[in-house]
Amino acid sequence: MQIIKNIEEMQALRGKMEGSVGFVPTMGALHQGHLTLIRQARAENDHVVVSVFVNPTQFLPGEDLEKYPRREEADRKICDLAGVDALFMPEIGAMYHDDEVKLKAPAYLGYILEGHRRPGHFDGVVQVVMKLFNLIRPTRAYFGKKDAQQLRILQKMVEDFFMSVEIVPVDTVREEDGLALSSRNVYLSPEERERALSISRSLKRASRLVMAGETDAEAIRLAMEDMMREIDVEYIAVVDRDFRPLERVKLKETIILVAARVGHTRLIDNIWI
Ligand code: AMP
Fold first, then answer.
1. How far is the CA of 146 from the centre of ligand 1 (A)?
2. Distance (Å, rounded) from C-alpha 105 to C-alpha 115?
3. CATH number at residue 122
4. How far is the centre of ligand 1, averaged over its atoms, from the C-alpha of 37 (Å)?
5. From the CA of 26, how far away is ligand 1's center (Å)?
């Protein structure tokens, strides 16, 4: 596996890659969720590139940019074992220039839910992913459904800018007890982790209600809220695949999303119905 920190080296290596290139962008502290994306990329492409870059422009002032977990050594080993061809780990100064041209997330999709709670976050995401796509020129890029709104916005970016990369959505990987894997889970104390379980349990409850014939979004929301009384719920949203609010759940068209704070840690999760 090649470890690349430099832009020119990345471009040169990409130039030599023939056939399809699968790309998995990450912020590192790799876990089983990331590994699932990497494995799928490995299975579907001739070459696999993973990036580890804690992108400063998607963090708001006061968020966890400085203390975001960094595990460079472990990340290298995981990628190497997973058969990654190139691990791209650029410095911030290599990725960003002074007074840049800036992309903006879509006015609706980028400013509801996560975008409303974290204004500017998705602007930073599209900025960095556009840069990474232009450097790596992937055939396919793999993103987790766990970050459902990010996934939809990036699909939109690719459509809106007529880009030729295929965005591949990957199901959320969970711990045995249901907690969605996240690099931020390391912040949770054992007691907080226990309370955090109410997020995935409430989503499971929602899916059971739907399977039992409940379609009323408000009834589902209330049932979920009831299960998450021990944590600070920021939102519970029942939306369609374009993130328009739904009053009635429609099978194969609905996403139910939760954002909540458990202690100082902000967690998101969702279920696709
Ligand atoms: P991150 O390093 O958190 O920016 O995540 C990098 C990629 O991994 C994103 O596409 C995430 O959606 C995806 N990802 C993170 N957690 C999970 C998970 N539990 N299951 C599947 N994909 C995930």
1. 6
2. 9
3. 3.40.50.620
4. 8
5. 7
CA quadruple 67, 259, 264, 173: dihedral positive or negative?
negative
Provide the residue range defining the domain that includes 255: 183-272
Beta-strand runs (E) in the chain: 2-4, 21-26, 47-52, 86-88, 140-144, 166-170, 232-240, 254-262, 265-272
Task: Kindly list the protein residues whose Cβ atom lies closer than 6 A to any atom of ligand 1.
Answer: 26-27, 33-34, 36-37, 143-144, 146-147, 170, 172-173, 180-183
Structure tokens at 224: 């979920």
- Close Cβ partners of 222 (under 8 Å, ≥ 6 residues apart): none
The closest residue, in CA terms, to atom 18 on ligand 1 is: 33
Active site residues: 34
Nearest CA to ligand 1 atom 10: 143
* pLDDT tens profile 146-188: 999 999 999 999 999 999 999 999 999 999 999 999 999 999 9
The helix/strand/coil state of 214 is coil
Pairwise CA distance, residues 156 & 166, whole Å: 12
Q: Which of 170, 197, 220 is the last residue of a domain?
A: 170
Predicted TM-score of the model (pTM): 0.98
What span, in angstroms and rounded, lies between the C-alpha atoms of 262 and 74? Answer: 27
Ligand 1 nearest-atom number relative to CA 180: 19
